[in-house]
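Deviation from plan, reported transparently: S-adenosylmethionine complex.
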Amino acid sequence: MDLIAPEVAQLLETLTPERPDIMLQMEQRARDTAFPIIGPAAGHFCYLVARMIRARRIFELGSGYGYSTAWFARAVRENGGGMVWHTVRDEALSHDAQRYLDALGWADLVRFEKGESVERLRLTDGPFDLIFNDIDKAGYPASLDVIETKLRPGGVLIVDNALWSGRVFHEEDRSASTEGVREITRRLTTDPKWTATIVPIRDGLLFAQYH
Ligand SMILES: C[S@@+](CC[C@H](N)C(=O)[O-])C[C@H]1O[C@@H](n2cnc3c(N)ncnc32)[C@H](O)[C@@H]1O
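Because the crystal trials were delayed, the predicted structure below was used instead.
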């Protein structure tokens, strides 16, 4: 099922500004290997938000080989400098991310940490201006307890896969991953500590501000 009309998805991609060849290579790798990166339209939206709030400290959970990281590093650099935490449990992906960010010339803006991302966040001093969450979906609700201790008041949380390829609409789907997406959505949209909505780009971005 196409959740976003193909014409709209296509239009958003054509509106995404030019990016370095290395980022295009990362997009090609995702197509070749079916690796779930956020893609150019959602990446550009994340970049735009980071620019708008002038984010200098950004923490990413579930960073893969660094494509979303590249968008955030670009924003931090244009905001005058800062740091993006890249966290992933896979050693090879962490290594690949370092190689790509190095080739982009932005590696000095990124801290690469291998391990379980929520645990890495728990062990890292806040506060952060922006946190981006793209870990295994069953882990979303528990991650929120840690995120709330690390985001500055007024800080922004972006959570990928809010639409979960449409599975959130299938009532009979009670899998841990689908329930994880439903639960974090419910908490972010009903808890008075948060103001949140879903931005329907690609697989849906939960977009929330912490008070
Ligand atoms: C969806 S992919 C990341 C894509 C990346 N955010 C991007 O858009 O370029 C998620 C990655 O994080 C890893 N991952 C998932 N849950 C994790 C967790 N709890 N801790 C650390 N890594 C995790 C997965 O193995 C995978 O490599």
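The first strand starts at residue 57 and ends at 61. We consider this an acceptable substitute for the interim report.
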